[in-house]
Every structure is written in C-alpha cells, then in structure tokens.
Amino acid sequence: MFSILKPYIFSLDPEVAHDLAIKSLKFNFLPKSAFYVDREEKLETKLLNEKLPNPIGLAAGFDKSAEVYNSLFKLGYGFIEVGTVTPKRQLGNPKPRIFRLEKDLALINRLGFNNHGSEIISKRIAENLPYGFLGVNIGPNRDTKNKEEDYYHCLSILHTHAGYITINISSPNTEGLRKFHDQKELEKLLKGINELKKNNNISKPVLIKLSPDINENEISNIIELIYKYEISGLIISNTTDSNREKLSDDKKNEAGGLSGKPLENLSTELIKKFYKEIKGKIQIIGVGGVDSGQTAFDKITAGANAVQLYTGMVYKGPGVVREMKKELISILEKENLKNISEAVGINA
User: Phi first, then psi: what are they for 101, rounded to 5°?
Assistant: First the structure.
C-alpha cells in the first residue's frame, strides 16, 4: 500500500506528511500480527539488560512528543525512542525546516527540538504506559542559559516510565549543544547527571548520543568519561552537518543535519572505532543509513548491539521493519549464526 501512496505522500511538504503520519498512527488500527515474521526468535537480544524481540529500533525525531509510540511498537520495532524532549514546550525553528533529498535517499532537517515539553510528555507516558522498551531522548531549550540544568530537569521528570534516557549532545540545530563533546564540558555534565541519579535513586540506564563529526582523538577521552561516570551506552550517531560533497540533490546545501544513506558508512566506521576500544563493556546503538537487513547487519557486525532508523522508514514506509527482520534472519542462516547477538563486532 505504501508504494501506491508514496507519490502522493512525497508530493506533500515533508513536515505536513510527517504530521499526517502521526495523526494516522493515533488511530492505532494496524494489527501487530501483520508485522510478525517466521523464525523471529533468532533476532531476540538483550539491550541494557532488557530482553527485546529484535534489535531494530526507531530513532528519536519521529515521535518527538511521545504521541504514538504504542502504535509504532505494532509495526515490529524492538524498541522505540521518543523526543528530543526539552523542559519547556518549544516550537522549533522557522519553516520550512525538513527537506527530502530523494536522489540521495536522505533528509536534511533543522527542526530545532520542537516538542510539547517535559511536563506534558511525562504525564502522557504515565497515562499510556508503553507496550515495549521505550527510550526518552532529552535536550535543552534553545534560550536556556544553563544547558546542564535542562538535562537534569528532564532526567528527573522523565525517568519514571522510561526504559532508558538518552542525553542528546549532538544535534547540529541547537547552538552550543555540541560543545559537550569537549572533555571538560562533558565531564561537568556527566558528573552532574551521576550525582542526580545517586541522590534521587534513579536506576534507569543513561546513554549519550554522539555526533558523527567528532575527531578521532576525542574517542578515548569520551570512553574514559563514560567509564568514570557509569554511562550505560552510546548512540552512534546523530545527523551530520558535513558530508555534502558527493550528494546529487539540489537541496544538498540547506542548513541542518543530514541523515539517511550518506551517513551510513560514516557512522559504521565510527562504531568500529569505539567498539575496538570498549570491546563490549559499553553497549552501542548504531544509527545512520539503516534501511535494510544488510545495513542493520553491517552496523551490528561493526560493534552495535542494536540499531535505529528514521529516514529509512520515510523512504520505505511502515513495512520496512518487517522486511528488515526477514532479511536479517536470512543473513543469519547464511552465516550459520543461531542468534543476532553472535554477530556483534565480528567485523570490527
């Protein structure tokens, strides 16, 4: 059905199409059984000590205000991440702010953390408990003077019904956010998060979402700090504000973060570099250019314990996870692997 509707959907402004998708998912009419595949038990895995039916997750950015995560679980995702959530409601940047690069199977967005705010979203999740493993991605408001305090506020409010919390320090669309990749700034932030967790008996896993544009010499410093402050995992990576040279689409120079196919190799190579140093001590979620069983398998064999997609669903529709699961199972059988967890890091 998506292939029939795709020309109409792609004739709409990308943000209008996205809002239409959210409204459609609120009807929650799709049967979960339609997205199940045979021998799916081969994809069962553990992420952050939680047993998942498969390692395929939906990245933050689609369900920004936690409105339709339970409908999304029915599409076959092993886990869902909502957000980015900020303390106060935020409208984001002026429109237009999402651009399809169809020739490159990519998106550029400069949304700017538009969401309903932590209070509304916390209440929404409490009143509609998740059917599966739900992550909540958090960040600061644009006009805040103390970004660290915004992270602490969101963690305090949103941890209760979240399976994990992601600290987003990597969006290119919030001024000053990526300064937290600096060792001193990151240590200050993580120290505060650790103290907050201990003082408030918050036991939920905390992950850091990294930029794909970091320098190689920053990797060891980041790893040192995640060990020191007991961070549970890394999400590698977010969108990039570079990597435009080989793109074909006329919109390639729009300001914002680039996602989709052009990010695939960049994020996979970064996963390998981190995995070689952490050797399974910290779990990794791989993001960037995931749109098939093979691209997911490539991320996993590079060292990711699980993967996430967003742009892949934009181009391939809601059935993408079902097709990915079928292809992953075929790959495992071809490689004589009994379970997807056996593939983690084998090509790193």
Answer: -110, 80
Dump pLDDT digits (tens) for 263-292: 999 999 999 999 999 988 999 999 999 999
Third-level CATH fold of 2-28+38-343 = TIM Barrel (3.20.20)
- Among candidate residues 63, 62, 199, 57, the one with its CA nearest the CA of residue 133: 57
Confidence of residue 1 (pLDDT cuts 50, 70, 90): low
Residue 7: how many other CB atoms lie within 10 Å: 8
Q: Is the pTM of this model over 0.85?
A: yes
Cα 219 from chain centroid? 20
Question: Can 211 be counted among the known catalytic residues?
Answer: no
- Say which of 71, 122, 171, 211 is annotated catalytic: 171
